[in-house]
Amino acid sequence: MLSALLPAAALAAPPLTFVMQVFPPFNDVKGGQPVGVFPEVLREVCAAMQTECKLEVYPWRRAYALAQSGMADGILLLLKTPQREQIFHMGAPVIQSSYVLYAQQQNPMRYTGPADLAGYTIGAYGPSGTSYAATDLIQAIPDARLEVEMDNPTALRKLRLGRYGAKGAVFINLDLALHLMKQEGDAGLKQVGEVQKVEYYIGLSRKKMSVRQAELFHATLRQLQRDGTVAAIARKHGLKAAAPR
To answer: What is the tens place of the pLDDT at every residue in 57-83?
Structure first.
């Protein structure tokens, strides 16, 4: 577990504790400190609220469990689902991205719709929002099968090695895939199509944070979206901010 304090201009409210997983380029750790678009946005929100915020880094399942149970005030980052809206105050989306499919270079498939995946084995990281979205995608497709992997690099590695067979693909966030390709190279793989747009949120635990506190946090975030602060942070990281709501 890695922990860092996000300084505020003044301490007019009790400290808030947030948790995150390493999910570059959205959330990452460098030099022992949380970095990336979501930690920077959180830092700006906390400064504007004049509230001290602590950000702790855990594996995904642990981070989610802490926020879900109310042992943390919030989590960076979440996809919105009906189930999660029962657990978290979600507010407005922060970043827009998309899910795409990768396949081996020799695979002639170009994704145009779910029917293209008939007979395919799809690798996806999970359990996570990614694997849930992949499940929704293939549930009505004949003979399509999902393999849930422990992390995204493992899914891409197995795809390169042909472990999913001739009809194999990986369902993955586009910005994460581009980040991993820069680190590990894209030898043997290609993007074969966009599946859907997605938006990522900061989730605030309903068990820990009151409606009033959540409304203040979300109102502060919306103001930073309207004044261009969030968009500037996103551009710095090569990402696209969600439109202000």
So the answer is: 999 999 999 999 999 999 999 999 999
Outline where DSSP puts E strands in 80-139.
88-89, 95-104, 121-125
Q: pTM score > 0.90 for this model?
A: no
Q: Is the peptide bond before 15 cis (omega within 30 degrees of 0)?
A: no
> Going by DSSP bridges, is the β-strand pair 74-79/13-20 parallel, antiparallel, or unpaired?
parallel
CATH fold group of domain 2-95+199-241: D-Maltodextrin-Binding Protein; domain 2 (3.40.190)
Could you tell me if 46 and 65 are in contact, meaning their C-beta atoms sit under 8 angstroms apart? no
pLDDT, block means (10 residues), the chain with 245 residues: 51 81 94 95 95 94 96 96 95 96 96 96 93 92 94 94 96 94 82 96 96 95 97 96 91
Domain residue limits, the chain: 2-95+199-241, 96-197
Third-level CATH fold of 96-197: D-Maltodextrin-Binding Protein; domain 2 (3.40.190)
- Each residue's pLDDT tens digit, 33-53: 999 999 999 999 999 999 999
Question: Which residues, other chains included, contact 91 with Cβ-Cβ below 8 Å and sequence gap of 6+?
Answer: 201, 202, 204, 214, 217, 218, 221, 222
- 142 by DSSP, 3-state: which? coil
- CA–CA distance, 155 with 111 (Å, rounded to integer): 19
Phi-psi region of 42 (alpha: psi -120 to 50; beta: other; left: phi over 0): alpha
